[in-house]
Amino acid sequence: MFDKKQKLEISQDELDLIESALHTQSKILSVQASAGGSKALARLNEIKRVLATIAQQKPAKRKVKASCNGFFKMSRLLG
To answer: Which of 1, 18, 27, 76 is the most exposed place for a label (fewest CB within 10 A)?
Structure first.
């Protein structure tokens, strides 16, 4: 059996753009599905699966180190 998956090389910016477009499409399909569109509901489910796949495969965002500003806020609280 053949694997139908292909690997694509895209930048993080391109992936963010695709993800944003899919979120917009899911909102549109949600409205159409709520109006009784069965095809829209099926397509919405497909879009949600793709968004879940993207979310799983995206690199985790790094936490930003605390700045000096955080230190000064803490020192004000303590005295």
So the answer is: 1
Q: Which helix (H) or strand (E) holds 5?
A: none
CA distance 26 to 49: 11
How confident is residue 69, by pLDDT bands cut at 50, 70 and 90? Answer: low
Identify the pLDDT of residue 44.
Answer: 96
Q: Rounded CA gap, 54 and 10, in Å?
A: 13
Among left, alpha and beta (phi > 0; psi -120 to 50; other), residue 23 is: alpha
Of the candidates 17, 15, 23, 21, the one whose C-alpha atom is nearest the C-alpha of residue 59 is 15
The residue assigned the tokens 């000064």 is: 72
